[in-house]
Design goal:
Helix 1 runs parallel beside helix 3. The chain is built from six helices and eight strands; from the N terminus they run H-H-E-E-H-H-E-E-E-E-E-E-H-H. The chain is 29% helix and 19% strand. The C terminus is likely disordered. The chain is of the alpha+beta class. The protein is globular and about 55 Å long.
């Protein structure tokens, strides 16, 4: 399906999808750190701000993402998934949500890889930034500590949703058409948070009112099974010096295409700031809904 693409367009599209996947993992995991993240905005972003978002990559997360991808790209029949789970100090665990980046066969042959696909991926990443903060796992991540910790696991292949329990909900973050298929980003999340006999969490309502079609130390032992997730709040002790993940370069530094830096946005330099304002407005409204459901009526 990519035979009509020029070699340069094919190279750029593959690079865009690769680094969009890496940034997607960063956004999801950083939203589960349990802390607020403040990043200074700029009306004149530099060429290193890929997708017009100043996201500082966590090296160990990039390392895990690249290890899961193993040189492959999300494509038709090849999904990249980020699983978020909760693990208590007693050793009990519960899957909370699964984010899925995949591609279907619907193609847009007339779309321009540069800059239309790039700019729409940028909007999709901003949508993800907002929606990661309104699913039930976000509130749980803000309360993690000695009682429980939030973990993440990245895998490549068939989507696994059986661990989310009965009645799980799904939300589509958005889609972006490309000449080789349509990029789709979605989330399936647990709604029944009743956990064990002595642990009761409220049952979460489905997410409502979201427009999705727009363009501490871990309480468990350090000995971890190979299939267990990584703690979202983990930091390498020698992060300042690169630590054990010095080889996992920041994707902002290694992302090179036919452009020497990220492609300049053609939606206007103030558009990213406006979009962020809209998304954070949505977050604030939905946060009030979660805290005081009765006020929403």
């Amino acid at each position: 399906m990519d035979s009509d693409l020029s070699p340069q367009d094919k190279k750029d599209l593959d690079k865009f999808i690769k680094f969009f996947a890496l940034k997607t993992v960063q956004v999801i995991v950083q939203a589960r750190l349990g802390e607020k993240i403040c990043t200074r905005s700029s009306s004149s972003p530099t060429g290193s701000d890929w997708f017009n978002l100043a996201i500082k990559d966590i090296p160990e997360v990039t390392h895990e993402a690249k290890k899961a991808l193993a040189g492959q790209l999300p494509g038709i029949g090849r999904s990249m998934c980020v699983e978020i789970s909760l693990k208590t100090s007693e050793g009990d665990s519960m899957e909370l949500e699964t984010w899925c980046l995949e591609m279907n066969e619907k193609c847009d042959k007339d779309i321009k890889v540069s800059y239309t696909v790039y700019n729409r991926l940028s909007v999709l990443l901003k949508s993800l930034l907002a929606i990661t903060r309104v699913t039930p796992a976000y509130k749980l991540s803000r309360k993690q500590g000695h009682d429980y910790v939030i973990l993440y696991r990245i895998y490549f292949g068939e989507v696994q949703l059986t661990g989310l329990g009965e009645g799980f909900q799904t939300v589509r973050v958005g889609v972006v058409g490309t000449p080789v298929g349509t990029v789709t980003l979605s989330c399936a999340y647990r709604t029944n948070l009743a956990f064990m006999s002595n642990r009761q969490f409220e049952r979460s309502a489905p997410i409502m009112g979201i427009i999705v079609d727009h363009f501490v130390d871990p309480p468990c032992s350090s000995q971890r099974p190979a299939n267990m997730g990584q703690p979202c709040n983990y930091r390498a002790p020698d992060e300042e010096d690169g630590g054990p993940f010095a080889g996992a370069q920041d994707s902002q530094e290694v992302c090179t295409t036919s452009f020497s830096t990220s492609p300049p946005s053609q939606v206007g330099q103030h558009a990213p700031l406006l979009l962020c304002t809209v998304f954070y407005g949505i977050i604030n409204l939905l946060s009030k809904f979660w805290d005081n459901p009765s006020d929403a009526n």
